[in-house]
């Protein structure tokens, strides 16, 4: 009888608790929110941050402002964000460089890439194109690999800088293809693309945003896309994995994070609001115009993604004995 009475009473006892939980307001900022971008204005990380800022501000009921804190390969701004008050009012739009590559590339970084932050969600992935000079390029990845093996290391590949994603994508390709090539670093995407157009470099792994116009203009040949799946902006271009290197997957990315200790309610709200923005047709079309693919997912998924990226590029950096300039 007592057990039956308890079972009957349980919903009645729980109802007030559920009503109180439901009545609790969602986290909301009480002043402007700043998104720290650890790069100068105009780059892809800055652009995607500004695409998100306005609709996020409308959803939160507070202005969202962008604060560019560039320098030291993204480490200055990342450190500023890590040291900010963990109250949801300071966020970091991070990238693969400062968060997943720098911890293995440099002897030390002034922040904890994992423990120092609370992940919110993956915002965007930027596939790279494998491009080569138009006048003498092989027409496929398989032909390029065969040529590299036949020439015994005489081919080269350029990048937008030592330790940059385009460099590491080339190192990963070398390793998986079992070939040797000489790395030629340039200071930025513009000079590197120009060098390939001029025939000074045999191949370049570069963002679709910067190298794509040269491909569409007939000045470069695109051999493949570096992501494991084809992308909508280049539907006829095979992936490197399809073209003969199964498992190859390289790209850059942006993710939104907050300082460690930020309340879970704030992380949950920010994840939900930014997730809605990422699925909107207007945002998706703007992002695809930047040669990117929208992200998404949960905070936990972003955390696991970051740990996997750190481990992946740490192995490439170790195997290639890569050191910063």
UniProtKB/TrEMBL annotation:
InterPro entries in alphabetical order: BUG, Bug_dom1
Pfam families (alphabetical): TctC
Signal sequence residues: 1-21
Keywords in alphabetical order: Signal
Keyword Signal included in the entry's annotation: yes
Top-level taxon: Bacteria
Family assignment from sequence similarity: Belongs to the UPF0065 (bug) family.
Protein name: Tripartite tricarboxylate transporter substrate binding protein
Organism this protein belongs to: Siccirubricoccus soli
